[in-house]
Write a sequence for this structure.
C-alpha cells in the first residue's frame, strides 16, 4: 500500500489544485494521500469527495506554522484527522491574516525594484489563502528577471540576513503561535499532532522535549530533508516514546525546491494503521 501523508495544493503554496493533485496520486498508484495545506482547512470536504471519485483514501489534514520560543526557530505541526475541525478555524485565520500582510509587504518591495505587475503575482496567488514567495518568484520568471525559481534572485530577495525582504522573513518566525499552544489546540479538536520534517528547522531538541512530556503524537521521519543519521535518531525517539512515524513527499508541484513527485517518500502501512487506530481511540474518548 502506497501512502503519502504530506502534500500541498494551490490553496497554499502548491502549483496543482485539489483535483489535479488527487488525480496525479492516482496516476502514481498511491492508495492514500493527505492534503496538508498550510493553515487551511479548505480542502477537507472537497478532497474527501474527490478521493471517493478517484478511489483514493484521503486523510483530512492541515499543516500549522508555529514558533519554538525556547530555541527561537520555526516548527511545523501537521494535524491529522481532526474530529472537530471548527476548533482550528481561529488559528487558521490568525496565521492566514499574518501571511497575507507579510505577502503583500514582500510583493510591494519587489515591485518597487523589479518591473512586474501586481496582477501577475495575483494570477498565481489567486487560489491560495495568501501570497507566498513562490508566487512572487513565478511572476519574476514570467517577466524575464530570472530563469530559476529558487536561484540567486530568490536568495537576493529572501535571504534572512540581507535580502530585500529580510525583515518580513525575520518577523515571520516570531509572529507564529507557540508550538505547545498549537498542539494543545489540535488535541482539543480531537486531532493527531505530528512534528513535520524536524531536519528543516533543526527541531530535534524540541522533539525530545515534547516526546518526554507526552506533548506530541508523532514525527515525520521519511522526508526529503532527512539524512540517514537523522532518520535513525527519529526512529529511536519514536520507538522509545511510542510515537506515530509518518512520511510524505511534501509535494508542491512546480513550486518544489527540488524535484519530488508525489509518492517520492512514503508512510509505511503499519504507521498508517497506527494513525488510524489512534484516531479511533480519540474518537471513542470524545464520545464517552
Amino acid at each position: 500500500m502506497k501512502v503519502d501523508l504530506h502534500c500541498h495544493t494551490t490553496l497554499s503554496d502548491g502549483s496543482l489544485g485539489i483535483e489535479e493533485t488527487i488525480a496525479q496520486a492516482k496516476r502514481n498508484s498511491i492508495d492514500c494521500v493527505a492534503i496538508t495545506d498550510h493553515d487551511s482547512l479548505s480542502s477537507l470536504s472537497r478532497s474527501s469527495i474527490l478521493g471517493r471519485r478517484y478511489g483514493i483514501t484521503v486523510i483530512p489534514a492541515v499543516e500549522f506554522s508555529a514558533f519554538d520560543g525556547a530555541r527561537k526557530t520555526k516548527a511545523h505541526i501537521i494535524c491529522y484527522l481532526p474530529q472537530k475541525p471548527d476548533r482550528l478555524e481561529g488559528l487558521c485565520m490568525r496565521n492566514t491574516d499574518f501571511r497575507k500582510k507579510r505577502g503583500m509587504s514582500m510583493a510591494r518591495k519587489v515591485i518597487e525594484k523589479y518591473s512586474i505587475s501586481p496582477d501577475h503575482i495575483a494570477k498565481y496567488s489567486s487560489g491560495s489563502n495568501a501570497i507566498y514567495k513562490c508566487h512572487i518568484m513565478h511572476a519574476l520568471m514570467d517577466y524575464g528577471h530570472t530563469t530559476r525559481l529558487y536561484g540567486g534572485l530568490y536568495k537576493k530577495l529572501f535571504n534572512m540576513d540581507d535580502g530585500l525582504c529580510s525583515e518580513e522573513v525575520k518577523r515571520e518566525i516570531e509572529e507564529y503561535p507557540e508550538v505547545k499552544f498549537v498542539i494543545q489546540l489540535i488535541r482539543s479538536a480531537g486531532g493527531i499532532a505530528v512534528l513535520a520534517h524536524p531536519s528543516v528547522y533543526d527541531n530535534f531538541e524540541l522533539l525530545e522535549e515534547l516526546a518526554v512530556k507526552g506533548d506530541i503524537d508523532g514525527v515525520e521521519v521519511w522526508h526529503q530533508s532527512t539524512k540517514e543519521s537523522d532518520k535513525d535518531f527519529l526512529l529511536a525517539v519514536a520507538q522509545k516514546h511510542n510515537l506515530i512515524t509518518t512520511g510524505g513527499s511534501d509535494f508542491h508541484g512546480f513550486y518544489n525546491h527540488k524535484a519530488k513527485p508525489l509518492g517520492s517518500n512514503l508512510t509505511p502501512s503499519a504507521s498508517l494503521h497506527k494513525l488510524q487506530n489512534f484516531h479511533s481511540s480519540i474518537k471513542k474518548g470524545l464520545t464517552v
Remarks:
- The longest helix spans residues 89-113.
